[in-house]
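Task: fold both queries, return tokens.
Query 1:
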Amino acid sequence: MPSLYCNHLSTNDSSISLEGEEFHHLAHVKRIGIGQRVILNNGKGLVAEAIIKELTKKSALLEIVSKQQSIYPETNFAIAFALLKNKHDELLIEKCTELGAKTFIPLMTDFSVRNPSANTVSRFQRIALAAIKQCDNPWLPDIKTPQELDKALDIMIEIGYKPVLCSEKMPEARLLDLPQLQKPCFIVGPEGGFSEAEFSLFARRDVVQISICNLITRAETAAMAIAAQFAGLT
């Protein structure tokens, strides 16, 4: 069933009007007609099933037939990642959103291969939005502005996450070896890894380090792998 983003959807609605980009997607991309059913997702935990009752040139009127409100999970995870080239960070956002990541913190590191642009966050938000519609994930992730590493660690702690560095320097330490974590933020480095100065920063900040697997993976693969491992435990 097609899924559409409707951020103004509320638990009190019995019908709702759809306009703009999501209406265009419904009427001109999916070509869904009167009487057909769709899923509406407000990205804040509410998902509804609705029937299209009316279509005009610019909007659709939908009758809501059922709703499901999810409770925000206490056990969840975030991903902090260095910006990547060739849209590999878009793949990271997409797949980790599908696996349930609730927050993303882009990083500017010593070996980062590119700098953020004016549309970096908005581009990531579009990718995450498409991903929640694809898998009916009721929670649109929070995507922070790119940060220097030290500031990013402060942000993780301020919003309730425990920083966990994914590092090849700790081959024997794995996710299962850690005490039960409710809100880890997994930190993934750039293609060239972290510098010695950055490893010293992690040591000074008492950041826990774990290994993902026995091999050295690409950055986007590392993020997806640790996301899948954590999702499999919860």
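Query 1 returned. Query 2:
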Amino acid sequence: MSNALARKQYTVNEYLDFEEHSRQRHEYMDGEIVAMAGASRRHSRIASNIGGELYQQLKKKRCEVHYGDLRLRVRKTHYVYGDVAVFCGEPELEVYKDTETLLNPKVIFEVLSKSTEARDRGDKASDYRQIESLTDYFLVAQNRVHIEHYSRQKDGSWKLLEYRNLEDAIRLSSISAELGVSDVYAGIDLPKLRLV
């Protein structure tokens, strides 16, 4: 983030105007504009694996899979880009000038990086869990086989399931899909991954 962006509080409209003309993506939270770090090849490959697998399963259903370029509004003063986001049915969109922001994601995946993990687990996760349409939220490690799956229960609470084996399968009943852990990590140099 540049110093100029760090010194000032911005309104939502100032952020949206700035983002519309920027070559780099930025997230926004409560007046602060945060530049997004570039993703590593490993990070990008894991996100592509997830998105590709889900796309194949959902392409004939009324669901869409987006890879990190569709902005999400988590709440009125918090805008983000999830690594993979899925919505089903009609999209609920906030339109500002020529840009769209999705309001009703159903499933979100975040691939963890050293530079983003604290935020992905903290403010971002807390705000994600407030989205009424969201049923599933994932944190995916890229340096080891470890996927955390938070799923909304009928009473509104969140249940955590963890996957640490390549043979595991993640069932996403909310979108009638299944994701193999081995598919998530396909093409990743496994000897460098720590199996936990």
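Both queries returned. Flag for query 2: Helices lie at 3-7, 12-21, 41-58, 117-121, 123-128, 181-184.
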